[in-house]
Amino acid sequence: MPYAAEGRIGQDPIPGGIAITDEQYQQALAGQLDGLHVQIIDGVFFVGPKPEPEPEPDPEPTPEQLLAQRLLASNSQYEQATAALTADYPQLEKDTWPTQDAESSAWLLDPLGASTPWIDRAAAVRGLDREEYLRRTLVKARQFVIMSAWLTGRRQGYEDAIKDGSDPVLDYQLPVEVLLELQAVQQTVMTAPTAQLKEALA
């Protein structure tokens, strides 16, 4: 009586094998000539393509690799969050922000005597009152400081936690208290009397 086991057939008993019929034996011989594979699945004889080997499991990351992965994930989310703050502005306009900030800050310190040539021209071309433009610039500058400081502090906190061995759940969404602070800045800058604006923002 013929026998079969995983990848083998023979006329003598095979350890771990099962008895098969003469017809199955001939089927197995023909299959092996065609490059097929004898299989015993749950005690049932099959002839078919050789099964693909199970992929080796990925090795467990080392502590150093885990640290690097977590830091990379945090930094990537931080970069996405900070990039979103300026995503709607072309680069040339962003290049003018230091000038706008300097001129609006000078106006805040000296509303009557400050020289603001860049803002004067941009406001005139845009069709805005000069003071309206200056106030809008102050709002954006103050809000950017608040948002960038919160996001950077958040990233640094995650970095400290990760280096201490923790795996924090990353969340770079601005919380409600920060959103309310941004609204308060806009309300203050846009409504406070010019003479009192410096004190209101102190």
Key terms for this structure?
202 residues, mainly alpha, 2 domains, three-stranded antiparallel beta sheet, two-stranded antiparallel sheet, 8 helices, 9% strand
Q: What quaternary form is this?
A: single chain
User: Any idea how many domains?
Assistant: 2
Q: Order of SSEs, N→C?
A: EEEHEEHHHHHHH
Shape estimate: rod-shaped
Q: How is the largest sheet built, in terms of strand order?
A: 2-1-3
Structural class: mainly alpha
Gyration radius (Cα, Å) is 36 Å
Span of the ends, CA to CA: 98 Å
| Helix fraction by DSSP (H/I, runs of at least 4) | 55-70%
Sheet bearing the most strands, described? 3 strands, antiparallel
Strand count? 5
List unreliable stretches of 5+ residues: none
Explain this structure to me?
The protein has 202 residues and is mainly alpha-helical. It has two domains: 3-48, no CATH class; 63-200, no CATH class. Helices cover 59% and strands 9% of the residues. The chain is built from eight helices and five strands. The strands form two sheets. The protein has a three-stranded antiparallel β-sheet, covered by helices on one side. The protein has a two-stranded antiparallel sheet with strand order 4-5. Strand 4 and strand 5 form a beta hairpin. Helix 2 runs antiparallel to helix 6. The termini are far apart.
Outline the fold blueprint.
Layout: E1 3-5, E2 8-10, E3 18-19, H1 22-33, E4 37-41, E5 44-48, H2 63-85, H3 91-95, H4 97-109, H5 117-126, H6 130-163, H7 176-191, H8 194-200
Antiparallel strand pairs: 1-2, 1-3, 4-5
Helix pairs in contact: 2-6, 4-6, 5-6, 6-7
